[in-house]
Amino acid sequence: MKARPAGVSLAAVLSIACALAACGGGAPAQQTPPPNAKRVDASKAGRVTGRVTYEGPPIANAPVKVESDPKCASQYPGGLTLDTVRVSNGGLENVFVYVKSGLDDYYFDTPTAAVVLDQKGCRYTPHVFGLRTGQPLDIVNSDNTLHNVHAAGRVNQEFNFGQPFQGLKTTKTFTAPEVMVPFRCNVHNWMSAYAGVLNHPYFSVTGNGGSFELQNLPAGTYTIEAWHEKFGTLTETVTLAEKESKPVSFTFKATLP
How many CA atoms lie within 13 A of 166 on its CB side? Predict the structure, then answer.
């Protein structure tokens, strides 16, 4: 076994070993569907499409004191700001849109493919993302500097561990639906991410232009919610017939002091 680097504690070494072994991970065990569970018939399914917009004065994101870590600062000679509000082509990005209610009797298999949360450029990437209960989450450090991963769920068990070296990966899973689980780095206080954990596949994160799509929805009446880290939540109700496609839009408005 190689000697540990100077200044690295035994606890950090154990954390590294755990990360290399992908502690807490592995393929999710598929649950047996309950007797009354329904499956989605894709040939009869519809979809919800839409757009999230922002109405109000431009918002300047707060600057970051990135110089606290020279390895981070070297990547941003022009400075760095937070990603709190991003408006592109009139649409609001990083909004988590999902089916909040209406799927009570449906059952969905747990995906075995992992979702990846990367620490790259001294930022979490992606900033907002979704995954399923029981689905593996691979947390990776792509930076040549120490990062700390602190997920502070209210429903799911909190975890907090270090990834001191580039290339480390730790796999975690969440056991219960929760919107949203915040991630922080206790080393770089500007680093944040948010995970929407659901027991169904109907969620989307808005990108350029604020658009989203929820595909393969069975006929029914649903509450659709849009979540944003600064502006909170908005909800809309939509009723789909078989094979029907309907638009849903959300507009977040700035709250003046």
Answer: 8
Residue in the block written with tokens 């929820």: 214
**Tokens (6 digits) for 238:** 């939509």
Q: What is the pLDDT of residue 31?
A: 65
CA distance 192 to 173: 18
Encoded tokens for 174: 């969440």
Residue in the block written with tokens 């947390």: 139
Query: What pTM, to 2 d.p., does this model score?
Result: 0.86
Long-range contacts of 148-154 (CB under 8 A, 24+ apart): 148/185, 148/186, 148/187, 149/119, 149/183, 149/185, 150/183, 150/184, 150/185, 150/186, 151/181, 151/182, 151/183, 151/195, 152/181, 152/182, 152/184, 153/178, 153/181, 153/197, 154/178
Residue with tokens 């990108």: 207
Per residue in 176-232, pLDDT tens? 999 999 999 999 999 999 999 999 999 999 998 999 999 999 999 999 999 999 999
